Prior knowledge:
The protein contains 11 helices and 2 strands. It has helices at 2-16, 19-46, 49-58, 84-89, 96-125, 128-131, 134-152, 154-158, 169-194, 198-208, 210-238; strands at residues 74-75, 81-82.
Amino acid sequence: xxxxxxxxxxxKLELSQSWxxxxxxxxxxxxxxxxxxxxxxxxxxxxxxxxxxxxxxxFSIAGMWMKPxxxxxxxxxxxxxxxxxxxxxxxxxxRQEILIKSRFIIYFFYSFPWQIILLGVYYFITPIQxxxxxVSYIAFCLIWLSANVYIGTVFPISDAGEKGFTTTKLxxxxxxVISLFAVFLLFLIIYVLSDHGVVYWTIVFAEKWPLVSSxxxxxxxxxxxxxxxxxxxxxxxxxDYV
Length: 242
């Protein structure tokens, strides 16, 4: 816990300069929420992958798109992608564990507050309250907030930078295309095998097994967070920043 407190103190500088990003993130979340709200009833009756895609987008990478440009990962003269502020911090006498945790804290500030607001508003303006009790809806929220941890926290790792194929424009473009295709393929497989989408099944799990689904989600999120921090440390130690 002490490390997390120190990491927060380190993260405050960047967070204090990111208010515009927070405003843009909030506006983007509310814009997508309007689509999710008016489409939920149709989704539950007919199912369509677009709904699942936007829901997953909000609980994975949406927040990081709104970071101010000066804090985004940029290509360095040495030929690798990294976050400039992290490169500066690596030159200071700060333990790696603190630096790494600070990047995750910044990610959580860009995602959790707006996701919690979205889920709160979502409950009151959509028919979801006719489908899930309050207890089941809390489980539904925990499932998706946990998904933000084990999916979204791959992005703080990218702040550390890495040389190779993805540092070229072509490599980055192909990586994005391949990733989107993989997500589409996964959604398609789920639809073909079960006739329903990801959001639908999380609603079912939350309704039938609220406690079990909540506990499993939190456990996966916890171990994913630990694993991602370990991996980020390996990346930092592997990349030559000189």
